[in-house]
């Protein structure tokens, strides 16, 4: 497995988790935080303010996703900066001259004997 493949798998996993965390949230105050008691000051199972946890996890996952994308960009195969292009070469020995097509000569004589009278 290449580094790029590993980063690609991690990007897919983080993107899936980010979608799940965003879908759990409800913009009107409902969602997971309201099912644990509604009030932000109540504790249930040691978790205080579930909405804050979801908000922070969204930001963390988004930041991790951006970092993984940037790191994957560095490890793209063939992106080492080496160019095999000869378009910018100024050496006249490597430049090709344009090829012209051969001129066809008629094999039979043409007679312009048509009269327009």
Distance between the termini: 84 Å
* Strand fraction: under 5%
Biggest β-sheet strands, sense, barrel: 2 strands, antiparallel
Report low-confidence residues grouped into runs of 5 or more: 40-45
- The helical percent reads 40-55%
Q: What Rg do the Cα atoms give?
A: 34 Å
The shape is elongated
What's the β-strand tally?
2
Order of strands, main sheet, comes to 1-2
- Tell me the structural class: mainly alpha
Please give the count of helices.
3
Estimate the mean pLDDT confidence.
74
Order of helices and strands: HHEEH
Keywords: Cell membrane, Membrane, Protein transport, Translocation, Transmembrane, Transmembrane helix, Transport
Function: Involved in protein export. Participates in an early event of protein translocation.
Biased composition (Low complexity): 94-117
Pfam family, one: SecG
Description of the structure:
This protein is mostly helical. The chain is built from three helices and two strands, in the order ααββα. A two-stranded antiparallel ribbon has the order 1-2. It is a multi-pass membrane protein. This is Protein-export membrane protein SecG. Involved in protein export. Participates in an early event of protein translocation. Keywords: Cell membrane, Membrane, Protein transport, Translocation, Transmembrane, Transmembrane helix, Transport.
Short description:
The chain is mainly alpha-helical and 117 residues long.
Write the layout of secondary structure elements.
Elements: H1 3-24, H2 31-35, E1 43-44, E2 47-48, H3 50-74
Antiparallel strand pairs: 1-2
Helix pairs in contact: 1-3
């Amino acid at each position: 497995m290449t580094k790029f493949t590993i980063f690609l798998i991690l990007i897919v996993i983080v993107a899936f988790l980010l979608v799940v965390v965003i879908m759990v949230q409800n913009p009107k105050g409902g969602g997971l935080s309201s099912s644990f008691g509604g009030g932000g000051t109540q504790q249930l199972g040691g978790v205080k303010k579930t909405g804050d946890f979801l908000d922070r996890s969204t930001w963390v996952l988004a930041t991790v996703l951006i970092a993984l994308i940037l790191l994957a960009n560095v490890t793209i195969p063939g992106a080492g900066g080496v160019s095999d292009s000869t378009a910018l070469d100024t050496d006249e020995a490597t430049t090709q001259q344009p090829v012209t097509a051969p001129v066809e000569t008629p094999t039979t004589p043409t007679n312009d004997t048509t009269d327009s009278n």
